[in-house]
Amino acid sequence: MHPLLQQDLEDLPSILDHTNQLAQVFLAGLDGRPVCPPIAEQQLKAGDEQLSAEGCGALAALDSFWQRYAPGISGSAGPRYFGFVTGGSTPASLAADWLVSTIDQNSLLSNDTIAAAIELATIEQLKALLHLPASFTGSFVSGATMANFVGMAIGRQWLGQQRGIDVAQLGLSALGHVQVLSANAHSSSVKALSMLGIGRDALKSIARLVDSEVIDTEALERHLAATSDLPTIVLASAGTVNTASYDDLPALLALRERYPFWLHVDAAFGGIAACSPSYSHLLEGWQFADSITVDAHKWLNVPYDSAIQFTRHMSTQMQVFQNNSAYLEAPSLRPDDYLHLTPENSRRFRALPLWMALKAYGRSGMQEIVERNVMLARRFGDSLAASNGFRLLAPVNLNVVCFALEDISGDTEATRNHFIRLLDLHGVVRCTPTHFNGQPAIRAALVNWMTEDRDIALALASMQTCRTLLEE
């Protein structure tokens, strides 16, 4: 054995203790860590782009990393990171994630680990939390991009089945042009269309309701009637990124009865609202969708990277993702045969952090996070609306606040970008730029399990400070 490997094996308890100390230092300082570190701190230090010839051992490597790069690590795990719908890591999920790397299981039905059984149990518990029926099966993937990819890949195969074509075997050319319809397709879905060979140009944007991100179902019906001969996937939004709006799923399901299409629901963060009796009505009808995307590293607050794809068409899914090899077990139609149900042959034990979090906090814990975040988002929106210098661009439907700068002359987009740079430099709260109804906007998404009233107060104070600096 290499002498440094031998030394690290002997020093493993010390290495783990030291890693634990660094983690505790990070978590203890999270409240004061900038949500967006200075750009200079986000750069690699001289010499670190080169491969070391001899190495220095784990303890020295840990210390070098922390001393040189800790200032460049964002406080995105903390309570005032309102960008990109990023959750944090609850204590239970963090502990589980450490174990995932330690026990290093390949989470397949391989008859040599409990991992697949725990993943199946986690999926069943998540279905219970979100009130999804037994007819759905699910599996863990890396994020919403891959969950959308899987859902549409199954949809592509299903469209072929309706025409007697095995797309997985013959290729997409045997099926021909597929149209994908949406009013608000997330960029991850557009990326998935590219990877699937359906193509970005297959996406047809359907009109939205006035001053809304919600699909106009009458416009959709007119388009479906005019293109009834085309294989069709409809992408529904259950929580849009700008305003957390939900498409009218019952109306879409009624259209599906007349114009058979594959209905995929992107509920990356909005689906978690189903755990709350106050907001579950927003998901009415999603139990009849063909496929669903839900992220765990958003509102369920487990570490990156973790998402779940659900479908009611497991046999079709297996046609797409089966992996046949002499050294592997043959595909079997069972919901935990993950080797043959997901894009990956090698899969990290992603289910354990969510399994641990559900066991630790139960239905009531997850519901409390959702309801507290929504309450705080609405309070945040009300305060912005009542303040000088800001205006809401849309009602706060759930946990996303979409707003703009008030009384701005000149180039509003440049001014918006300058304001966000000031906010980043101030380091207290992180928001992201967007566009809504054709105008430059700012969005704040609240999903972190630690966010409380004081964080809203601190965020508002920082924004007022930066708004004043903007005028100087």
TrEMBL record:
UniProt keyword annotations, A-Z: Decarboxylase, Lyase, Pyridoxal phosphate
Cofactor(s) in the UniProt record: pyridoxal 5'-phosphate
SUPFAM superfamilies: PLP-dependent transferases
Stored InterPro entries: Aromatic_deC (IPR010977), PyrdxlP-dep_de-COase (IPR002129), PyrdxlP-dep_Trfase (IPR015424), PyrdxlP-dep_Trfase_major (IPR015421), PyrdxlP-dep_Trfase_small (IPR015422)
Protein family membership: Belongs to the group II decarboxylase family.
Protein name: Pyridoxal phosphate-dependent decarboxylase family protein
Organism: Serratia aquatilis
